[in-house]
Amino acid sequence: MNFKLDQLKMLLANLITSAEKIKAKKTQLISDKHNISVVKPTFKTKELAKILDVDESAVLSAIKEINDNNPDFTIERSSPYNKAPYVLTYEDCLEITKELGILSLQQRREKGEEIECKVISVHNGKGGVGKSTTSATAATHSHFDFKNRPKTCLLDGDPQGTLSHLSDEEIRSSEDTITTIMADNFHVPRDVRLSNEKQSEYRAKLEKLMIPHKLGSITILPSLSVDKFFVVQYCEAFTKYGVPEATLEGLTEEAQSQAHQDSLDKVRNQIMTVFKDCIIEPLKPLFDQIIVDTNPDTNLTTLMYLYASTHLIVPVTGRSADIDAYKSFFTVLEMLSENMMPDDCGLFEVRSLITLNRRQPKEIDDNANKIMMNMNCFSAKIQYSTAYETASEKGVPIHWLERKRGGAVSPALEQITKFYDEYKLWLGWE
Q: Where is the AAA domain positioned along the sequence (predicted)?
């Protein structure tokens, strides 16, 4: 009998029994407290003109052309009066954009313009700094980018699955997960992985996993609970590589050491590239951007995400503990990259984003300003806002929340718009 193990089992059983006795009082939701409704956003002609980067007169002319010549589509004014302003729905905006002849990213690519799918990882080695909110916000604001109209894949790289609530559908049951697809292909040579046949096979498996976002231009590739065991399978794959003893016979000590290093390099490159080859590459033909919401650990899995990425956003707050973790993150990332990252890493753009910012206590905003002075940052600072919590509680994009005068939603959206204006330039869309 294992006395210590029995003691542990008894301790855990008692803790479980005690925990069951805790009857927590239900806390009041932010959304209930502020009584904010869910509404589909509408746009003024002036707002659409700014998004499309055209004169408002061009938008008004397009509306007249549609109403005069398209019997199947009518754009309504806010009231029956002839001079009443137009209230544009999402569908209205798309129709106007089409009438103006503004090409989407996909259409520009089809005409020969070199616009590659961008892969944006959102990561910091600490939790609670707004990674998932940043990922979701970048994706949802892209939906309302009527000029570029990007198709977005929101890839949930966090096994907690924080982004799945943004879909009206349940996660689908499938024999394959992101983890199984990668684990099954650890040992497949890269040239085989990247063949048309294999890419089509991976793409078909991934499409079975995808669920639609509430916004039609976005698709969610969710993580599943089993994905948290990926690191175990990753490490197991490492143990299966080595140099046979017979191969080492007759070699000098230096040659044997080099043989072991070559074997390690081989397995490193073979396994570190599997996420890019088997998950990202098959998705690229389907999307204009793939946004990867990572978990807070900075480990080998993180490096696989970064190896596959073209851009990295590092959310950070002005809280002193978060800044300490932020500085450590780059040190750890450098160490892991030097030892584990394959030479052909595609990541070439890194920017920090101030999140959850507060003007009080003053030290938080001061710290945020110091980060912006010393690091490559977006100039937009995302302030703490109850609007994000409300959107999360209601399971909707923040853009769907009612915009009350003096409320939290409009200021939050103004900051998001400022961030996105920089974001699309950063990606090279404009």
A: 118-338
Q: Please check whether residues 70 and 108 belong to one and the same domain.
A: no
Which of 102, 117, 149 is the endpoint of a domain?
A: 102
Between CA 412 and CA 205 the distance in angstroms is 37
Cβ(158)–Cβ(297) under 8 Å? no
Q: Let me know whether 258 and 369 are in one domain.
A: yes
User: pTM for the full model?
Assistant: 0.85
The answer to whether the CB of 294 falls within 8 A of the CB of 158 is: yes
DSSP character for 117? P
Helical segments of 359-408, H only: 362-374, 386-394
Range with the lowest mean pLDDT among 26-30, 37-41, 90-94, 112-116? 26-30
Q: Strands of 126-264 (E only): list them.
A: 152-157, 211-212, 218-221
Q: Give the separation between CA 157 and CA 312, rounded to whole angstroms.
A: 14
Same domain, 54 and 149: no
**pLDDT tens digits, residue range 271-298?**
889 999 999 999 999 999 999 998 877 7
- DSSP, res 229: G
Q: Report residue 154 as tokens.
A: 């929101």
Rounded distance between C-alpha atoms, residue 16 and residue 123, angstroms: 34
- Name the 3-class secondary structure at 259: helix
Q: Show the DSSP H helices in 79-229 as ranges.
A: 90-99, 105-110, 131-143, 178-183, 190-193, 196-209
Closest CA to 356 of 316, 391, 393: 316
Q: Which long-range contacts (CB under 8 A, 24 or more apart) does 87-91 make?
A: 87/42, 87/43, 87/44, 88/42, 88/43, 88/44, 88/45, 88/48, 89/40, 89/42, 90/40, 90/41, 90/144
ω before 282 within 30° of 0 (cis)?
no
Residues 67 and 116 in one domain: no
For the chain, what is the domain count?
A: 2
